[in-house]
Amino acid sequence: MSDSSRDTARGAGWGSPEPGDYRGLMPARVEKLSWLDPRTMWPARNGVLASWFGDPTGRTRARWVEQRRDAGAPADAVVRRDDPDRFSFMVIGDTGEGDEPQYAVVPGFLKASQGSSFAVLASDVIYPVGSLDDYGTKFHRPYRDYQAPIYAVPGNHDWYEDLHGFMRVFCDAPALTPEAESRRTVRERLRSLLWHTPHKGDEQRLEEARQLRSEPAQQAVQPGPYWAVDAGPVRIIGIDTGLLGTVDAEQGRWLREVSAGDTPKILITGSPLYVDAEHHPCEIEGGGTVDDIVRDPSHHYVAAIGGDIHNYQRYPVRVGDRTLQYVVAGGGGAFMHATHTIPPVSVAGVTEADFRCYPLRGDSLAFYSRLYGRRLRMRRFFTLTEEQSMAVMAKRLGIPPIRSAGAPVRVTWRHRLVAALLGAGGRRGRASRLRLPVRKAYTQLFSPGSATYSPPFFKSFLRLDVTPSSVRLRCFAATGNREQEIDPPVEDEVVIPLPGVSGKRSGRSPVRGASSARGTSSAQGTSSVRGASS
């Protein structure tokens, strides 16, 4: 097995002399997507409008679901597969920018996914607005050699054109018929005037794109934007959190229904429930939260995996006599959200010793210091080596460095200042609480904004190997360098016990109790890799 970022700097992708072969998979012309460009931001305005004038996605979603049921989709939105009790599936989130970081994931993904039964895309399949015409270069082409079905849950960007592209591709649904005119409030009229409406899309272009994934083994038509998949001994449930990260009342009722029974369950969501050392339980219209459903012991969830944030994080949360694994898996292709801005973890009983992230905070700080050294033309001042970044983050977090240098690294005033300017998280207390708004502003304002940078990209994806007694979850890295393409390193690994079930998908057997994930901490469950996440 190749070195990971926890082992060596070379394992993290630093200093690799040979770029990967992923460029050969890309189209001849690639449009660079910049989130600093008003031409990108203006079509993506619907999220802001929904927060100002009311969110219409619940009503639109209900119309999509009704259309699919009228077309013959199962009323319970459950896909019943015939996978054996031992099978594997992949999860990859926030993929579709269509540029180098997305395609850099593909070679390692194809290697690590061998023998898997299907894949799930978790959030933001297509950037910037989920346009139907973008699916060829941002979905069909990159995954054309993956010889298994792909299911998906939409993210907020897929909703910027009212989910039209997503529903056409994943559900084979025609466009919605226009709604009859009705009396609308002033807020609704204002929203309608400014709303970005769906682009019709080029059907011939879509048909040509579909030929790239036309093998019978690759086909899947899912029931709608939210669904459940019964596979082997588990039920995988995908929910749609729309534009604002919430669930409408109808979907909430459905979620409670498909969560009942003692079959072990894994949630896939467009909005993670734990992220950046904070709890986001995801409200359900009419009362309650998604996390209430996940935590209910009668529902037998073992993990909740969400996209939206473009990195990897894992929180093993103790709930009663079991440990739930809350995972962020949004490193599939979009620009990298920083991990060095995450403060010391202390949430729901999870501490730095239990928490895992990729990239490591030190590598994240080194990445951003190089990025802004170039952008601001201040490389000599801003740029920190990976060893310096590891050392300064360890000092700020109060933990030992994960990947120590050969010789001790002295942290200077410049290292500390650059880390502070780039929003690095520090020890908790009054000062860190005061820094929280600054950290959030940094995360929004100083993200890379475009893929105008070079490897290592610090992308990631998951493989889950299911047996009747456990789920083995592994996070693989993709850096854009050839070494990590040939042998994708495992950055995190955890074995999740499954509650006992007397028969395949019986939904009736008594639960014999779930224990925590294996590792050095029986209370929290830890992965097989070592150390915290500096």
What report would you give on this structure?
The chain has helices at residues 38-41, 46-53, 57-70, 100-112, 135-140, 164-170, 186-194, 203-210, 249-259, 290-295, 361-375, 379-382, 386-397, 413-421, 430-445, 482-486; strands at residues 78-80, 87-93, 118-122, 150-153, 227-231, 234-239, 265-269, 274-275, 278-279, 301-306, 312-319, 322-329, 346-347, 350-351, 356-358, 459-466, 470-478, 490-497. The protein has an eight-stranded mixed beta sheet, covered by helices on one side. A six-stranded mixed beta sheet has the order 4-3-2-16-17-18. A two-stranded antiparallel sheet has the order 8-9. With 534 residues, the protein is α/β, with parallel strands linked by helices. α2 (46-53) runs antiparallel to α7. A hairpin with a 2-residue loop joins β8 (274-275) and β9. It has 16 helices and 18 strands. Helices cover 28% and strands 17% of the residues.
Can you tell me the residue ranges where pLDDT is under 50 for at least 5 consecutive residues?
A: 429-441, 501-531
- The strand line-up of the biggest sheet is 1-5-6-7-10-12-11-15
Number of helices: 16
Could you estimate the helical fraction of the residues in percent?
Answer: 25-40%
Mean pLDDT: 88
State the major sheet: 8 strands, mixed
Distance between the termini: 23 Å
Strand content: 15-25%
* Principal-axes shape call: globular
Gyration radius over CA: 22 Å
Number of strands: 18
**Helix/strand-derived class?**
alpha/beta
